[in-house]
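Q: I'm writing up a methods section and want to include an example of the input and output format. Could you take the sequence below and give the corresponding predicted structure tokens, formatted cleanly so I can copy it straight into the document?
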Amino acid sequence: MLAEHCRHARFVWNLAVEQQQNWQPGRRAPGYNEQCAQLTEARAEYSWLAAGSQTVQQQALRDFAQAMRNFFNRTHCRPSWRKAGVHEGFRQVGVNARHIKHVSRRYGQVWMPKVGWVRFRWTRTMPNGIKSFRVTLDRAGRWHVGFAAIPEPIPGPADGSVVGVDRGVVVSAALSTGELLRAPLPSGGEAERLRRLQQRLGRAQRGSNRRTRTKLAIAKLKARDADRRRDWVEKATTDLARRFDTIRVEDLDVRAMSRSARGTIEHPGTRVAAKRGLNDAISRQGWGRLVGRLKHKALGRVEFVPAAYTSQRCSACGHVASENRKSQAVFRCVACDAGPWNADVNAARNIAAGRAVTARRDLGAGRSVNREPQSSSPAA
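A: Here is the clean output for your methods example:
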């Protein structure tokens, strides 16, 4: 029945997407209230749709309406199609304390429409004021329930401490204190097993049971790797938010940096395979998730520094030259002969010092405020 809820929510969402794509100038696209009336008519006509939960289907329409508002406010992309096996989930609202209860120390139960009480593993303390939850099915076949709540930010030490964070491909995050943080990578055995499974997937016939089993095995391996990286991000960001009062990071456009280089038929890209490998490496390091969680946990204490020349500037004298960086990991200034240092740590020190122009961003509006002037000193 949970899978049925996912199919109904995806079906209603895709109908709303189709209505928006068929919109033409001079015609008004149907809004949420009109779509709810259309849903009532569809449920009266189709018994398989009426067998599902009306609240789940209406919530899919409400989520789509919110997604369209986010698109018109230029904060998100236009809502697109949801695919079977990829976007499996639904949301339930109107939740209160009567819908959630403890069964034991490690397990609880939640009331779901058309299903009843469903047991789940209680992994953390449940905050007060929960009003909705979302159920999802990942590609590894695991069901998840997430309760919507706004967590309190982590308080800082309030001692004026500042740290710079330089994100890289070899070293996930280098701190100005000299620490090197690395996201966990798959072991050699896991990488070899993944390679063999991908070869088996390429030889399997489409629609066969062997292909289905192979896809599930690949999904389980990747899910385990993603869980480890997600856990590392949570622990690293919590540690940074507790230890430092101000956290400065590079202002990188991760989406643009990880964009494909394939090009078009008329203008094909060059070095596509190399760019694809770089994009995969950036994705594995979790640059976007790292900064996103820092902004949540250290609310108002994250500052963005332009990334230009932070890796070529000497943190001791301020001399900027491409020859300063001897290799990916070694930095030695050609002017003051400072070093050798780790190149990523040197860049993190420049970020911590606010080299170039530092801008603290309003997290709600996305604009820069409290701009500090750039010093005329060469070492600034």
